[in-house]
């Protein structure tokens, strides 16, 4: 049976295979130790196709990708509304998998019998060289002499394993109209079921179907295959996902920094250090401390709990400095995560202060209703802004005032409740005060911030006061109501003062996400070459680094207790190493993958 012992380079075992990173001997050991396939040998590719082969120990050969289905998708915009976007000049359709080149040959064939007609096989362009070719429609009525042209397209082929997915890839750069894109996608979908009169016997029909079996890709499936074939690590996959959805320049820069591998290098470097410590522990367990200590290793004079030399030798101080590096890495005020997720800026204040007017002015469009009736805004209105490269969600909220004031109804009360929640969840609060009703306006903002015990103290530093409608009261500029250092006189009607306020708001946003001045963090990272500027960008990474640092803290206590606690101390090192391995995908991360790839768009 051909597929009986086939290794599926699929989501299930994929994360643990990194061919490009391992020597063939390591790969073999990996397969035997981790993949539980002791009966196979992995050979690096020598074939022109470049596909690795796996030999079963009874010498039957399998191609690693032969059982993978070939997938295709529209990878760019274009194609019109029916496939999720407006028409563009060019649309890129990608195929990946063992049938990709055959499918391309079929599209290049003008004969109504396609490849099965016995005629000359259409030549594929040279690998990685663009070529302008006519694509023919295999769904053309069979009575015609020639298939109908589908498009004149630029074609590129990337033979595996030197491709994004590690498989054979074809890129069709077509014209971006709905008719062309739908025509090509439909041709690929039906390729294996196109009736070919030249083939009469069932067996040949089946063989043809196998050669041309394609299906539409799932979201993120190209990247998933790249990961399964060791082309990308987990942290790089996450970075790619961030890069695709980046809205601002700083988000793009952060994603690119992570994509170039510096964050992976940091975590892998730490993990290697821990594994060295573990090897030391194994040696002590097996041979006793005299033999375990490396004679070249400088003894730091560490004392164990019994007053003798530590059985951990030079390992203990290294682990301590590793834990400290992790703690510095963690003490970054979540800047990377904030930049990735974006900041929330809530505009609050009394009704009629001009909150919606300010939101509209900053957004450059009439996103919220403005009216002279107090209590106009009820629901929270959100607009996305790019402030100096920081993605910010600006939230306009209902005006807050005493519930017993005249005219307040239950809908407004609900609106005020939502305003309080928005302010509490925001990273920056902008309190808008009407200059003609300054005292009450300021009181309302202060009550919202100080009245609720839940309001984080740190956030009280991130409040900007905007005294609006200065056009109505010019003497306001000298009035003491602008005495707060973080307050600005503006007019939404004349735009006076708005630019000054915007530049301070931008500086404030940048200071929350910037790590440039963060000496602690850069000191933590510069110890590992090439990892400068690597910051935590996801809560998932933070959880694992925290757990690793905790384990190292416990190790430090246990390592001082001599032989008695040797096993337990080693276990903490193992735990810390596996937490770091979970970040990079070196250790099973099945649960993470499902969520991560579902976040990708189709075609990536
Ligand atoms: N003269 C003057 N009028 C302004 C200014 N800003 C806003 N207004 C007016 O003030 C009124 C209230 O403005 P909104 O932006 O709706 O106020 P709001 O704070 O959103 O009010 P609620 O949604 O009810 O809480 C409108 O009539 C605006 O035209 C300003 O700078 N100068
Ligand atoms: Mg409003």
Describe this structure in words.
- This protein has 604 residues and is an alpha/beta fold.
- It has four domains: 14-63, no CATH class; 70-217, Probable tRNA modification gtpase trme, domain 1 (Gyrase A, domain 2, 2-Layer Sandwich), CATH 3.30.1360.120; 263-332 and 519-584, tRNA modification GTPase MnmE domain 2 (Four Helix Bundle (Hemerythrin (Met), subunit A), Up-down Bundle); 347-513, Rossmann fold, CATH 3.40.50.
- It has helices spanning 24-33, 100-108, 178-190, 202-211, 221-228, 234-245, 249-259, 262-287, 289-292, 315-330, 335-341, 355-363, 410-425, 438-450, 498-513, 519-526, 539-559, 566-584, 590-598, and strands at 40-43, 53-56, 61-63, 70-74, 88-96, 131-136, 149-158, 169-176, 214-216, 343-349, 381-387, 390-396, 428-434, 463-468, 487-489.
- Helix 8 (262-287) packs antiparallel against helix 10 (315-330) and helix 10 packs antiparallel against helix 17 (539-559).
- It is flat.
- The protein binds guanosine-5'-triphosphate and magnesium ion.
- The site of magnesium ion has 6 residues, from helix 12.
